[in-house]
Structures are given as C-alpha cells and as structure tokens.
Amino acid sequence: MRIGPVGEAIIASIAVAGIISIFALFPGVTCAIAPFIKKKKHPRKQIIQNSVESLVQAGFVSKKINKDGTVTLQLTRKGKWEALLRTRSFDTKKENWDMLWRVIVFDVPQTKNKLRHELRRAMKMYGFKMLQQSVWVYPYSCDDFIEILKKHLGVSNDVLYMKVAFIENDKHLRNEFKLK
Fold first, then answer.
1. Confidence of residue 94 (pLDDT cuts 50, 70, 90)
2. For residue 4, what pLDDT is reported?
3. Beta-carbon neighbour count of residue 13 at 10 Å?
4. Residue 25 shares a structural domain with residue 65
5. Which domain holds residue 159?
6. Any bridge partners for residue 65, and if so which?
7. Are 86 and 127 in contact (CB under 8 A)?
8. Nearest-10 Cα torsion for 162, 163, 166, 170
9. What are phi and psi of 44, to 5 degrees?
C-alpha cells in the first residue's frame, strides 16, 4: 500500500503520542497536515477520516470505539515498523563518515519472497544502496537499525552485517552518498 503524506502525518502523530483519541487528533493534525491536502473538494476532516480508514484496512493502525463514543487509534506492530522506517533517528548529512562501509549480505530463500521484498524495502528507505541483488551498502553507523531489522523480520540467520574498510571501485558509491 502506498502511504501518502496525510497517512504519514497520521502515523507520525500516533507514533509520537502512542495511543491517541481521534477527536484529540483532528484539531492539531488538521493544521499540521493542511499543506499536504491539495484537493479542496472534501473537507479536511473527511480526508483525514479516509486516510485513517485506509491505514486501518492496511493493518498499520488499530481502531477502538470507546464506551463514550470516542475512537482511539493505536499503531499495530506493522504500523510501528513503518513509523520506524519513515522517521529515521538521525540525518546522515550531518554525520561524519568514519571511512567504513556497512555491508548487508542476505540469503533469504525464494519461498520467503515477501520477506525478501520487505528487507529490500526497509534498506532502501533507510538509505542503503544496492550493490547486487542481495548485497547492500551504507556509509554511516546503523547498528541499532540492523538489530531492529533482524529482530522485526526474524532474519538473524539469513542476514550478515559487516563493516569493511575497502570496497573495490567505490567511486560510484562515494558519489551516490556525496562522500569525499
């Protein structure tokens, strides 16, 4: 499922707040996501409600109707994973390169095609660059991300994480990551 800017803002809001009442969500989030809502046909509240329903159907958010009629939203495990991928904890442009490449090599069986796809998607969203189908490279420290990735996807035995000082012909990688 493609998550648009409104959906991203909703996931980020829930990630920050933990559990959030939908009525508490609308006043603040409506202002925060107004720049992402291009069409003026539907009221902003309707666009947010549609996005929430899409996130619930996709399994990113769980929705609970309380006794008082309010609705409570909470990120599911899948939603927490998506929030983690979309809100990296650091900006690599500010980080100094320590001259070590972080290399991920994986061998996930063809029978687990969805898992392989999710692994590639996660590395791509985090900023890794593909060297070969199952070999990905990143120049900055990412030990925490790799630990979470292996644990969340359950691929500890299928993923090898290395820190290497030399990659032959790495000029194109240095250019892609804008390294000197």
1. low
2. 78
3. 18
4. yes
5. 92-176
6. 71
7. no
8. 80
9. -55, -40
